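user: can you give me the structure for this one chain? tokens are fine.
assistant: on it. calling the predictor now.
[tool input]
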Amino acid sequence: MLHECQSMSRGEARQRWLKLATLISLLLITLSMAMMPTEFPQESPQTPTGAIRSVTATSDGNISIRFSVIVPNVRYLDCGVILLPPGDSGIDSSAQAKLWRISMSTGFAYNNSIHIGISPPDPNEYVGISSQHGIDNDSLIINCSSLGQVPDGKWMLILVYPPTEGSIVGATWHTNGVPITDQPLAFSSLDNIDAMKDYGFAFVPGLWGYWYFWDYVFVISLVFFISLAIALLIITVQVRRRKEE
């Protein structure tokens, strides 16, 4: 008789805990549904592709990078730039990679001497960093004018697309000596690179991460709710049978 009472007590305790757990999972389901954005991304964005048209060293200590048409066309504001200027360990060495998320500012200081900005090739065709027309009418400018010359050595620049953590196009080139006039530089395209991850800049954009987080909460909570509801039903039936006996 004592054993039956203890068993009944354990069964009722399990029933109470299962009710509490079921209620919590139901609250999580409700919360996740309420926190989901009303507009969901329909599909993953596509990483644009393109090419670099020219790299030019100027006599005032700047480097101008012109892009060919990017497909699909994007604004500078939607992109980022990873820059690796020459390092101190030889002609083929590179300094630390740094990322400019262009939407954060109208210019970027790699350090006190090297800056990156955006300049139109023709003031009459100015479209600017907030333009809807894309980036093929502007140039990226690496400004080293405070040094009086472009630092000698190996340069690397990659245009990246943070929403997909993908690389649009990149190039590497060498500089040697101060140009008397503007001089085109031979450059090599960087293909099959995963710059955002390789240099530790990969991140999940807020909207996508936010949506997936609550989506996972909903799915996990729903699975727990169904499992707990079944277990609660079984325990409830067992408790009632013991009471009837």
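assistant: here you go. Residues 206-244 form the longest helix (39 residues). The chain has two domains: 2-35+206-244, 52-198.
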